[in-house]
Amino acid sequence: GDPGKWQGPVMDAQRAISLARTRAAEWSIDPGRIGILGFSAGGNLAGHVAVKNGNRLYDSSDKIDEASCAANFAVLIYPAYFVDQAGTLLPDFAVDERTTPMFFVHAANDGVTCLSSVMLFAELKKAGVLSELHVYPTGGHGYGLRPTEEAVTHWPQRAGDWLRETGMLSSKTK
User: Fold this and answer.
1) Based on CB atoms within 10 Å of each CB, which residue in 20, 117, 139, 163 is the most buried?
2) % of the chain exceeding 70 in pLDDT
3) 10 Å Cβ neighbour count for 4?
4) Cα separation of 72 and 55, whole Å?
């Protein structure tokens, strides 16, 4: 995709992750368990951060930038714009075995194609990256954190299970 649309926000997110790492002791958080979560276009941003996996898109400017900007995990909820009109994964989303683990949720009837989640998940699987994909038949777009009768809105429990299973919720990461 057009870097003009995503590059600035990705640099902001990378800086935020580095900042969180430098303040980990002050904020009582584990610097080895910092993730990124995004919905829709924010899911696109989180996906870019995850596939960059610490490859900073800007020149380091101070002490904060000495800390890694790699997310330890990414939670992508109905992420947008990972594929072209034909459903082919865009080259911006190339992955390898070191790519950040990702958790995906999408509804098949979402106007923002679930192929973004499906195709990136497939590449992560091929690369051996621990990831999880949930595509529900219905639910549409924009449900966020609101629980409804739609099964897709219960994704936070599935994400919690995944985070526990990957060790991200315990004091000892895998």
Assistant:
1) 117
2) 97
3) 7
4) 13
Q: Which residues pair with 74 in a beta bridge?
A: 36, 102
Model confidence pLDDT, tens digit, residues 154-165: 999 999 999 999
Q: What is the mean pLDDT of the chain?
A: 94
| Single-letter amino acid code for the residue at 154 | H
For residues 77 and 102, is the Cβ–Cβ distance under 8 A? no
Between the CA atoms of 91, 12, 97 and 107, what dihedral angle is there, to the nearest 10 degrees? -70
If you search the block for the tokens 């947008």, which residue do you land on?
Answer: 80
Lowest mean pLDDT among 17-31, 56-70, 158-172: 158-172
Could you list the beta-strand ranges (E) of 27-174. Answer: 35-39, 73-77, 102-107, 132-136
